[in-house]
Amino acid sequence: MMWFDAHCHLDDEQFASDLDAVLARAHAANVHAMITAGTDVASSRAVVALAERYPSVYAIVGIHPHYAETFSDETFATIRELATHPRVVGIGETGLDFHYADGAPREWQERVFRAHLDLAAQLGKPVVIHNRDAHDAVMRILRAYAGTPRGILHSFSGDLTMAQEASALGYYLSFSGTVTFKNAPRVRTIATSVPLDHIVLETDAPYLSPLRGRRNEPANIIHIATKIAELKQIELDTVAQVTTKNCQALFGFAIGEVL
Description:
- Helix content is 42%, strand content 17%.
- It is an alpha/beta fold and 259 residues long.
- It has one domain (3-251): TIM Barrel, CATH 3.20.20.140.
- The chain is globular, with a radius of gyration of 17 Å.
């Protein structure tokens, strides 16, 4: 079986001392490709450097809604330049986060989100979308783009109606360690209901670990996949084959030879 971690944060300081070991464990667990996500200009530069260093690592670059107030013509010009790098396979992590009262103004977040969607469409690369407590606003904006660009709703947290509409617009739903959490029944219901050919898997490492109380890492994708197989009552190998195929189709490259 071959696995694809569609979203992680390998530049996080939690991996600063043992990244080589983390990647070795991922390879031993048959994780053949990992997409590491930028969250601001500095992080985007860092993930591109990691993708240059490690053959199984690819990057996406962008400005996370938590850092939307760092967006300017200058910072976005840097993101645009980084996005043309051959090891950059998508745009993000971008989107909307309305969870925190002291977060960036909603109107500003929406402006930044649209800029990323425009860039992804211009470059023909998928977009990776963060959504927290902003379901209606995210879908309103995605409708306006009529499914162009395609992309991923990362660590999906919406309801079934949102899942169905996003899938119809050409977006994949990404499931993380939350699908294993006892306090996330809605996520499991959606993972059960959505066809496997609309699903990709991610760890969001070092966050959202399926092994509670422990740092997450890409090797743990197997725990997420096992839960998906259990919920759908299908073979684990089917989950591996279909979710890997989905990632290959979205990101536009074969991963069988990256190791």
